Backbone:
């Protein structure tokens, strides 16, 4: 596979590539970047994890003129989490470009700070969700007349979520001379239609969904609906994965599954599209810092999430299509690690299981489910506990300040302190469960960086 150094990129971008550890291009990058650098439009069918964010990120940043303080590129994403991830990745790619402003504009977050940031000075790049971008356009707070690059990321999911009208309105406000990049994991007729309406003589790149890696141990369990909670608990108790994501086909099921698991003592949290942005962020922080060991998610909420070192994926329901199955289980067994993928299958769902068998080209392995006794407190809690501090970047708080307060005044050993996340107005620190109450008491009684802040266990 060719290397990024073979491309005639803006030299400043190689600093970002080095920081991210990117040297060789993935197939979607190799197939698209030469044409993108020339300014061509693109339609790419590429799955999550294929490297598409770096592909369009490099293309946008290569074309930008940082000296021109105006909006030059817009990336539309289906969910707030994906928009946040894309913006973070682009900021890292732009490490070598000084004074570049990349602004995330998504719903679920307060509107006033976004309006204030836009009024202060225009961003060079906006990464946003269609609903919030449309809202800001209608308030005349956003000007797309200078857009040189437009990206529709995970366009199929945006259409599934009902954003077609917003997308068409937004595209209509951009110059016809723009470069347009459309990425989609699937290629239904609706995508073909929007591609014809928005793209000019596009280069087409297709990176097929890869069959599940050999590193993923896939197992199916036939179980009737009423016994699913006991079968799920049995899997988690038998295999004891350090972290697992349970996928439900229906959003309402995520809360029911979490209630069932929490009753047993698991540190389980739900993630679905109806949650407030702050709550969603908090769930993801807790899962990443190991104070939640089971995340129960809907596909829309989890699409685009990059969860490192995930031990197991469990399909509480058989996905409605094989692409979704591949997406789900591909989150485990990454970077040379082994992973587990379990699917609970009712008799009614057997035809879907057979479709998956045809797609992956190998016989499914069927295990007999272990039905756990649903006794309260029978499950292991997560190894860590999260403390929330009501202070963050706006208070000049840094991770080192929190570590200093915990290992200094609070007297904790360094290995009792886990991952620390600092946001604008709040921070989270993971503490070993056995030390959590001590850490909380000391932080509440003491000071961080010479000041008292509200601290609570979540």
Residues:
């Amino acid at each position: 596979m060719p290397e990024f150094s073979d491309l005639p990129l803006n030299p400043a971008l190689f600093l970002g590539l080095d920081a991210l550890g990117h040297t060789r291009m993935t197939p979607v990058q190799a197939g698209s970047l030469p044409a993108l650098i020339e300014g061509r439009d693109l339609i790419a069918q590429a799955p999550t994890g294929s490297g598409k964010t770096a592909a369009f990120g490099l293309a946008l940043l290569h074309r930008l003129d940082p000296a021109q303080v105006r909006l030059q590129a817009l990336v539309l994403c289906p969910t707030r989490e994906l928009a946040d991830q894309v913006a973070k990745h682009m900021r890292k790619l732009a490490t070598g470009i000084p004074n570049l402003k990349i602004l995330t504009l998504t719903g679920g977050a307060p509107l006033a700070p976004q309006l204030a940031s836009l009024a202060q000075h225009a961003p060079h790049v906006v990464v946003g969700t269609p609903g919030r971008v449309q809202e800001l356009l209608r308030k005349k707070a956003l000007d797309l007349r200078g857009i040189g690059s437009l990206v529709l990321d995970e366009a199929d999911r945006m259409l599934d979520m009902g954003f077609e009208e917003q997308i068409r309105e937004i595209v209509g406000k951009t110059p016809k001379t723009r470069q347009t990049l459309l990425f989609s994991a699937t290629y239904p007729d609706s995508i073909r239609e929007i591609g014809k309406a928005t793209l000019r003589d596009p280069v087409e790149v297709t990176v097929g969904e890869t069959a599940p890696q050999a590193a993923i141990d896939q197992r199916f369990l036939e179980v009737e609906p009423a016994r699913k909670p006991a079968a799920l608990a049995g899997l988690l108790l038998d295999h004891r994965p350090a972290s697992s994501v349970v996928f439900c086909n229906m959003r309402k099921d995520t809360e029911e599954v979490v209630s069932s698991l929490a009753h047993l003592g698991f540190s389980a949290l739900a993630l679905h599209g109806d949650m407030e942005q702050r709550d969603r962020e908090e769930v993801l922080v807790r899962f990443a810092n190991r104070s939640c060991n089971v995340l129960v998610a809907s596909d829309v909420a989890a699409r685009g999430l990059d969860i490192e070192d995930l031990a197991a994926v469990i399909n509480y329901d058989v996905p409605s299509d094989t692409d979704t199955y591949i997406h789900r289980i591909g989150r485990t067994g990454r970077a040379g690690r082994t992973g587990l993928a379990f699917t609970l299958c009712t008799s009614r769902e057997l035809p879907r299981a057979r479709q998956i068998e045809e797609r992956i080209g190998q016989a499914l392995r069927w295990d007999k489910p272990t039905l756990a006794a649903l006794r309260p407190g029978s499950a292991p809690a997560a190894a860590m506990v999260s403390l929330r501090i009501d202070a963050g970047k706006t208070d000049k708080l840094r991770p080192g300040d929190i570590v200093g307060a915990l290992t200094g005044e609070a007297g904790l050993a360094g290995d009792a302190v886990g991952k620390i996340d600092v946001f604008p107005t709040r921070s989270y620190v993971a503490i070993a469960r056995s030390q959590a109450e001590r850490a909380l008491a000391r932080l509440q009684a003491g000071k961080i960086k010479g000041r008292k802040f509200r601290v609570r266990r979540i």
Remarks:
- The longest helix spans residues 80-93.
- The longest strand covers residues 216-222.
- The two ends are 46 Å apart (CA to CA).
- The CA atoms of residues 21 and 44 lie 24 Å apart.
